Every structure is written in structure tokens, then in C-alpha cells.
């Protein structure tokens, strides 16, 4: 049966499955056909799970019994840092190359309960550290639109898996834009929920106060369906929260930071594309308000102090003794050095060293403590702005997708997060939706941020915005 995965939404697939147009196995086969055709070149998927067929069979049984949820039989990929019992979760690293998960992450457990079909695990920057999926120890992922270009990162494989028709949705993780930026580069929707709204239980930690499991799909409504499945408070994650009592708010006023068009590093085609989006939004009757956020420029430097500090702490457990790679040395200290020296890539080592430095005696107050204080200032600034406007509109990325090897300086790659990192610093929900094309025919985007816990309002508004911008 010929199923056009590229135009198929979750809602339409659900209707087709329950009405018997095709089966969950047929749908899985259509995705696998696209993977077999393209994955050798793109390398979005590290592994396709053999037991996906068993899940598809169970989904068909659920459908026949009238027990189908909206995600029953829907093929979904998971990023390589999300645990799935009995399957390798390597975080695209040499350190965990052969590590098999001994339990399900809460997000995967919720997908399984819904009857979703987990197709496979997707490539990523090593331990989620990167903006182009070039730091993966397993190989580079290419942008499905043009293989000379990066897919973004760190969830580049997840974004590419949707864009190449390998699945209808993907789970990624977002610490500074790692769902939204690759979604924008690959021309799909990338949703980062409110911090804590999706349990981090079973997510290999990078920056624990920043990490959020997010969703990548073709449409905003598709992201809503997946988010509704995986969200919720979890006894295994003390930072998790419930959104059940939050009322939906109608969006009328849209804030735009004044300095977007004067910022260094923002390309002219991104500015022009964003202006077009603003004109469309204005013509639809929304009020555009210039907002002043003087501390927003500090979000990126704050992130690159807090994140490495948390990285150095979280990755201290990889010592070659308990699990993961183990390289025997002449002493226990020598074994530690050799294991971490061979098991971690260049970017991971850079961030571990930086994090160890800012946490060290004599520098903790000067760097880490000060960054924590500025983070609170930025959060308060968002609270003030959201008392004046309903949502904030920005580009997702300061540039269009770039070619492999184009950004050799790590600082240039770090700057890719300039628009996305504030949402992680402030714990608020944000979403990237496709809008426009670059001069090289690559995908461009816009980003919408909403107040803390206003995920449902954000998704409803961007679903409307999505139709306006088409």
C-alpha cells in the first residue's frame, strides 16, 4: 500500500487506522521504506528497532478492540539519550556505545501505554553538546533538504527523522534550543515544553536545571498530541509538575524585543523573513508590542556558565568503574584518566573542563553564583514582560542552516542558541514553526515563547499562526 508519510499528520493517520484504510504494520512499513531509501545518506537513525513490528502488531490489536488512543500505531523515534528498556542508549558517545537501558524512561513508558510504535533511536551531538550534530561519536547526520548542510543540533537526528519521512513524530531533548533549532533547520515543528512538565526520569542528564524532553513533528497539532501523552507529574522526578489546572488564555498581544534587528550575528535574510511574519500577524489583527528586555543579552553567557557546571557534575559518574567504557590503567587514577580521555570527545571535554573551573574554589562566587543570580533577574524580566503581552515572537535561529565545517569556532556555534536559550533559562515553553526559505532554499523559521505553564495556550495560538503563515 502506498502511504504518503510526508503529507500525513497524526490526526489523519489515526482516522485511517481506526477506519481500516491501512494497518499499523502498513504504516510502519511505509516509514521503514523511507528509512531504507535515505538513512544511509542522511544517518538520522542510529538503529531501527526490530521489536517495532511487535509494537505495530499490538497496536493493531488495540485498534480492533476499540481501545485506540490518538497515538496508537503512530511511528515515533526517540533521541539516543532517552532510555528504552533493553535497547542501547549511547547518547551518541563512545563512553556509552554499548550501554543497554535497564528501565524505561517515563516518556517512553507513556508512549508504550498509548500504543505508539517506537521505530528507532536517532543520532545526536555527543551527550547533547552541540548545535549541528557534528560532535556525535557515531557519525554526522545530514540535513534531508540538502546533504551539504547540517541538520542542527543536538537533536539533529530527531529532526531529520521526521523530515525524511522515517516517522510521524520524534522525541528530543532541549537544553538551550536542541529541539527548536534543528526543527527550524529541517523545516519541521519543534516544541520545548515548560521545564518539569515532562518527566526527566530516564533522560541521560546534561544540564539538570535546563533539560526538557521535547517533541518534533510536521504540524503544531501533532506536537500537541504527543505532548498530551508524555506530560505529567512523575514520582520518579521531583522537579516534574502538573499542568492540569492551568486555564487556556486567548492570545491578543505579541511582544517583539526591540533589539532583534540590531543584534550582531543575525543575518539579513533572517531579519527580512521575520519582518514578513510580523506583517502577516499584524494583518490578522494581533497587536504587536515593542518590548524592552535589557537583561536578555546575558542569557547566553549565563547558560555557558551554568550548563558546563552541571555537565561536569553529571558526567563525573562516567569513571570506567560502574558502567560504560572502561580502559584499564596502571592505577585507579590512570584508569580514570584513560577512560575519560578515550570515552569523551573534544566538545564534551571542553565543557567538563569549563564547568570544573567555574565550580572550583575561588571561582564559584565569581562565576557560578553570579550566573545563578542573573538567571533569577532574567526570569523576573520575563514575568514583567508577560504582564504586558501574551506571547513573545522572535526568530528561532540567527542564521539559515549552514554547511558542514562552516562554523569551526566553538563560539560561533554557541551563538546559534542566542534566541532559543532564554526559554530554558526562564523555564518557559517555546515552539519553532517553519516559515519561509533562505536564498539557498533552506528552511527558515519563527519562534514563539509563552509564560510559565502556558503550554496549551501556546500550542493553540501557534496552530492558528501556522495556518496564517502557510
What does this structure look like?
The chain has 470 residues and is an alpha/beta fold. The chain has one domain: Amidase signature (AS) enzymes, CATH 3.90.1300. The chain has 15 helices and eleven strands. It has an eleven-stranded mixed β-sheet with strand order 1-3-2-4-6-5-10-11-9-7-8, sandwiched between helices. Strand 7, helix 8 (268-283) and strand 8 (287-291) form a beta-alpha-beta unit. Helix 5 (156-163) packs parallel to helix 6 (180-186), helix 9 crosses helix 11 and helix 9 crosses helix 12. The chain is globular, with a radius of gyration of 21 Å. The two termini are 29 Å apart.
Helix content: 25-40%
- The CATH class designation is Alpha Beta
Portion in strands: 5-15%
Mean pLDDT: 96
Give the overall shape, derived from the CA principal axes: globular
Give the oligomeric state: single chain
Q: How does the SSE layout of this entry go?
A:
Layout: H1 10-18, H2 24-42, E1 45-48, H3 52-64, E2 75-79, H4 106-114, E3 117-122, H5 156-163, E4 169-174, H6 180-186, E5 189-192, E6 212-217, H7 220-230, E7 253-257, H8 268-283, E8 287-291, H9 299-314, H10 332-343, H11 346-358, H12 364-385, E9 391-394, H13 410-414, H14 421-426, E10 430-437, E11 443-449, H15 455-469
Parallel strand pairs: 2-3, 2-4, 7-8, 7-9
Antiparallel strand pairs: 1-3, 4-6, 5-6, 5-10, 9-11, 10-11
Helix pairs in contact: 5-6, 7-15, 9-11, 9-12
Write a concise keyword list for the protein shown above.
alpha/beta, Amidase signature (AS) enzymes, 11 strands, about 40% helix
Amino acid at each position: 500500500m502506498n502511504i504518503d508519510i510526508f503529507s500525513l499528520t497524526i490526526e489523519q493517520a489515526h482516522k485511517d487506522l481506526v477506519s481500516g484504510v491501512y494497518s499499523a504494520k502498513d504504516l510502519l512499513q511505509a516509514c521503514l521504506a523511507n528509512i531504507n531509501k535515505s538513512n544511509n545518506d542522511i544517518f538520522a537513525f542510529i538503529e531501527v528497532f526490530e521489536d517495532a513490528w511487535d509494537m505495530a502488531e499490538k497496536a493493531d490489536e488495540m485498534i480492533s478492540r476499540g481501545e485506540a488512543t490518538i497515538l496508537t500505531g503512530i511511528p515515533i523515534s526517540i533521541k539516543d539519550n532517552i532510555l528504552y528498556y533493553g535497547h542501547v542508549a549511547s547518547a551518541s558517545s563512545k563512553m556509552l556505545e554499548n550501554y543497554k537501558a535497564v528501565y524505561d524512561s517515563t516518556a517512553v513508558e507513556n508512549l508504550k501505554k498509548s500504543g505508539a510504535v517506537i521505530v528507532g533511536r536517532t543520532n545526536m551531538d555527543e551527550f547533547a553538546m552541540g548545535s549541528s550534530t557534528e560532535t556525535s561519536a557515531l557519525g554526522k547526520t545530514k540535513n534531508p533538504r540538502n546533504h551539504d548542510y547540517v541538520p542542527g543540533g543536538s537533536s539533529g537526528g530527531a529532526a531529520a527523522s521526521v523530515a525524511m519521512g522515517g516517522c510521524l513524530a520524534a522525541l528530543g531533548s532541549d537544553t538551550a534550543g536542541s529541539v527548536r533549532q534543528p526543527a527550524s533547520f529541517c523545516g519541521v515543528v519543534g516544541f520545548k515544553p515548560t521545564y518539569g512538565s515532562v518527566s526527566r526520569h530516564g533522560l541521560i542528564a546534561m544540564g539538570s536545571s535546563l533539560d526538557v524532553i521535547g517533541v518534533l513533528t510536521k504540524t503544531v497539532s501533532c506536537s500537541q498530541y504527543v505532548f498530551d501523552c508524555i506530560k505529567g507529574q512523575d514520582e520518579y522526578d521531583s522537579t516534574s509538575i502538573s499542568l492540569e489546572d492551568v486555564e487556556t488564555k486567548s492570545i491578543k498581544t505579541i511582544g517583539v524585543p526591540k533589539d532583534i534587528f540590531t543584534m550582531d550575528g543575525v543575518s539579513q535574510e533572517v531579519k527580512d523573513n521575520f519582518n514578513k511574519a510580523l506583517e502577516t500577524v499584524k494583518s490578522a489583527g494581533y497587536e504587536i508590542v515593542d518590548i524592552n528586555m535589557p537583561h536578555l543579552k546575558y542569557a547566553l553567557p549565563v547558560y555557558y556558565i551554568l550548563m558546563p557546571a552541571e555537565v561536569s557534575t553529571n558526567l563525573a559518574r562516567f569513571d570506567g568503574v560502574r558502567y560504560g567504557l572502561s580502559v584499564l590503567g596502571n592505577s585507579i587514577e590512570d584508569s580514570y584518566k584513560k577512560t575519560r580521555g578515550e570515552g569523551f570527545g573534544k566538545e564534551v571535554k571542553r565543557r567538563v573542563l569549563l564547568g570544573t573551573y567555574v565550580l572550583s574554589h575561588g571561582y564559584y562566587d565569581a562565576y557560578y553564583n553570579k550566573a545563578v543570580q542573573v538567571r533569577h533577574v532574567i526570569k523576573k524580566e520575563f514575568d514583567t514582560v508577560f504582564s504586558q503581552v501574551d506571547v513573545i515572537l522572535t526568530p528561532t535561529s540567527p542564521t539559515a542552516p549552514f554547511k558542514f565545517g562552516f562554523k569551526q569556532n566553538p563560539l560561533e556555534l554557541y551563538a546559534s542558541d542566542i534566541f532559543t536559550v532564554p526559554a530554558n533559562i526562564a523555564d518557559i515553553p517555546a515552539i519553532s514553526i517553519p516559515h519561509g526559505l533562505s536564498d539557498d532554499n533552506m528552511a527558515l523559521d519563527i519562534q514563539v515563547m509563552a509564560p510559565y505553564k502556558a503550554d496549551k495556550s501556546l500550542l493553540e495560538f501557534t496552530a492558528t499562526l501556522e495556518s496564517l503563515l502557510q
